[in-house]
Design goal:
The structure is a single chain. By secondary structure, the protein is mainly α. It has two domains: 208 residues, no CATH class; 158 residues, Serine Threonine Protein Phosphatase 5, Tetratricopeptide repeat (Alpha Horseshoe), CATH 1.25.40. It has 21 helices and three strands. Strands 1-3-2 form a three-stranded mixed beta sheet. Helix 5 packs antiparallel against helix 6, helix 13 packs antiparallel against helix 14 and helix 14 packs antiparallel against helix 15. Bound molecules: zinc ion. Zinc ion binds next to helix 3 and helix 7.
């Protein structure tokens, strides 16, 4: 992923923890909806988008980067390679099995396979429990030496454990967080307890609130896309929790409410259409909501039988997309809203014709002569 300013921002954060490696570090942000980071022996650092979506402020970021550097400094990577050969075939088989399940159930799991395979790989390469405790200790020392909050690490791990418990999948709820979130760093209650004990040795100092705003500003251009990626995991309980944590800052409310609407829309439980509608309606109050919020708001209102509200939302959407008028209609359920609003929606078109792409192919404007479809769309902007 290419974002020089985000890379520079993260580079600076690493340099705070690890000034001795600062000159050698090359950093890449990976668009992967999993909480993970890695530091290779040559100074190459990967930070996953799933991590940046979950750290709350620079104090937590400093702890995580300190933790990664701890594995690096202690040569933990070399030790974990010893696991590789025995488990590689198992992971390959796991990918095949999941693909097979998808076919048998008629469910498309193909987009999930990459993530699942990664989690399998992560389990192979994951650090041991002693290594994790050691890296936590080093990360804690590095971060607190720079003045970061001693409570930050425990706060972050607590939220990740809570996220594991919020999973839609029983096996993830039962397992510790290793199965899904902190990919190569198995996380359990003992580790959290050890970290809390460490924090107890230092005077308490809260995180720097301004740093939460700086961090959000750095990831803001990607927030909507990363939340969309996160939904690919189809773990709605976890995505709800992530959205709620992001909302605590009080920023990006249009994007976050829209994402909540998307979770309800995709989850499709009883009552979710109404909940999705309410979330989209909340999002639409904020200027940062994506333009498609009006389309989804219209669609949910249509499904609820709220025709006037649907119409207002669709009309707002179309006003915002004057150049996409005809193309967008192919997915518009406006035909359900035909008459008596027809004349308002389609001035110059014969009354009662079906609205939608088929209607457009078979009908011409009353006074339009033999205009091509394209010309018609230009002459008759919606509504
Ligand atoms: Zn670790």
């Amino acid at each position: 992923m290419e974002d020089p300013s985000l890379r520079a921002y993260l580079h600076d954060q690493i340099c705070k923890d690890w000034p001795e490696y600062c000159g050698e570090i090359r950093l890449q942000v990976m668009n992967t909806p999993i909480f993970n980071a890695a530091m290779a022996p040559n100074g190459y650092v990967e930070v996953f988008s799933g991590l940046l979506l979950r750290v709350r402020d620079e104090d937590e970021l400093a702890f995580v980067l300190g933790h990664e550097g701890g594995h690096f400094a202690e040569n933990h990577q070399i030790e974990r390679w010893q696991n590789f050969k025995t488990t590689a075939n198992t992971i390959f088989a796991l990918g095949l099995v999941i693909g097979g399940v998808g076919i048998y159930n008629g469910v498309d799991t193909s987009r999930l396979i990459d993530t699942v395979r990664f989690v399998g790989l992560a389990a192979t390469f994951s650090y041991g429990r002693d290594q994790e405790t050691e890296a936590d200790r080093i990360g804690f020392q590095r971060a607190t030496a720079q003045g970061f909050s001693p409570q930050a690490g425990a706060a972050l791990w607590s939220r990740l454990i809570a996220e594991g418990k919020a999973s839609d999948f029983a096996n993830i709820r039962k397992a510790d967080v290793r199965a899904s979130i902190f990919a190569t760093h198995p996380l359990d209650a003992d580790r959290l307890a050890a970290l809390k004990a460490l924090a107890g040795t230092k005077p308490a100092s809260g995180p720097d609130p301004a740093s939460a705003h700086r961090l959000r500003a750095a990831i803001r251009p990607h927030l909507a896309a990363w939340l969309k990626d996160d939904l690919r995991r189809r773990d709605f309980g976890q995505t709800f929790l992530i959205i709620g944590n992001l909302e605590a800052l009080g920023e990006d409310m249009g994007v976050l409410n829209f994402a909540r609407g998307e979770v309800y829309r995709l989850r499709r439980l009883d009552g979710d259409v109404r909940l999705a509608r309410d979330a989209y309606a909340a999002a639409a109050q904020y200027p940062d909501a994506p333009a498609s919020v009006w389309r989804e708001l219209g669609e949910m209102n249509r499904r609820l039988g709220e025709k006037p509200a649907a119409l207002v939302a669709f009309r707002t959407y179309l006003e915002n997309h004057p150049r996409r008028t005809i193309l967008g209609l192919s997915r518009m359920p406006l035909r359900d809203l035909k008459d008596p609003t027809h004349d308002t929606l389609h001035p110059g078109w014969p009354a009662g014709h079906p609205v939608g792409p088929r209607g457009l192919r078979h009908h011409r404007p009353v006074a339009g002569g033999s205009l091509s479809r394209r010309k018609v769309s230009r002459l008759h902007p919606w509504p």
